[in-house]
């Protein structure tokens, strides 16, 4: 409910000028249907300065332009929003006239806009003044030209109207001043003139919040709370970037890095040391399509439970970010002083265009896949050299995915090692690398296959794709290779072990083929897609349910019935400690299980 100046300003700042309708003009509220015609009507200039000075003398108030009034019981009532065309109003001219013609210039006057297009209103806030000054304007003449410097008039607010302080009262005030301090000497008058000239000159630099009248008061309050961090004077006008109000501020000590004052709605204000701010901006610089860097990575977010203004100093090594199109994440500074953005881990069912890359012509009974999308900004300059391809082939027999495949048979009493890797089936070139290891049954039928591939961007795919697959090609052939009495259905623990190994291989081993992944920057968040699919149709043409190939019982019942496919996408940095990867895998599998109908699944069973 609007019943005072504070609540009225809150509604205007929330862009709800209609909330003021029904209010009566009062000591603190004045409404104008149309803008002041400052360009061609000298009386309008006099009216503006009179209105502002009257509120300054009367304890503060707000002038709302663009709301018509109606007369009701001899009182003006705000009736309906007319709206003001911003192109027809010069906010800078309003500010300049107030500074030039109201003496002394009232402090903290704010000129801003409220409401949406078509119902936008202008408001001029005049805060209560604390220096006990009497605010005067040149006497009105109603003619073009500069105001006379030898005249003075003092407007006063009385309820919903403004009147001029009578000459007799002005004389009494002057006489009281003379009695208190004596008749001013020539030197005193000269000092007063110099002071008046100094105050009338333009400021030596911008003030806090200048350029954003709608948020100037908020920025001033934040600046005052954070000033002890070493804030100096503003280095330029404030500006808006997305939802944030920003302003460069000098350090109070010459030569020290400056600051950026950042205010985001719903978050406590923060000042960020300029080198750290530049690192944040650079982290999103490679966002595709010319996207604004901060629109990609977002703005600093405090730790949970923090609701007071805070400081990010120049020696900070991590800053959490949110509010950008990339989602929550953070920038961290390495020991070498290199900053890099990484996403905060999260899960979804989103699927990229490369989800089924390399599956054409294959019909395994079961596929366990980890596919990592690596949207590096410098991907077009990458290549796969012969030496790195050779190194990869030498490393694969000792890789995590090779070990996981070997253990599948070892747990069933057979030593069928994934030791021999050959090129294919994905093709090899300067833009791709692929290797496969096949374990065959006694008659040569492929039983279990492990394969890896890395593909650099093409005209069809803009990211680097790294993939590791483990295929149960033919359960019968595998059973024959194992020997009598062994079940080829995978346990849920085996499923996890294989997916973990495939993910680790795709995320950490394969990217090394292009050089040093840690030196590359992101153009979008990296993701990992984990897929569990039954792909060989039965004789009736229907794909078998996954629970015939994997023991999914610990996940609980599925009200949606058997499924031939489960999948989940993890947004997270590719490189991480093994324990963290295991933890994320369990959480991702539970997220996947819930999404596909296993609503009783919990991490405790994994």
UniProtKB/TrEMBL annotation:
Pfam families: SLFN_AlbA_2. Gene3D superfamilies: Schlafen, AAA domain (3.30.950.30). It comes from the Bacteria. Residues 25-133 form the Schlafen AlbA-2 domain. This is Schlafen AlbA-2 domain-containing protein.
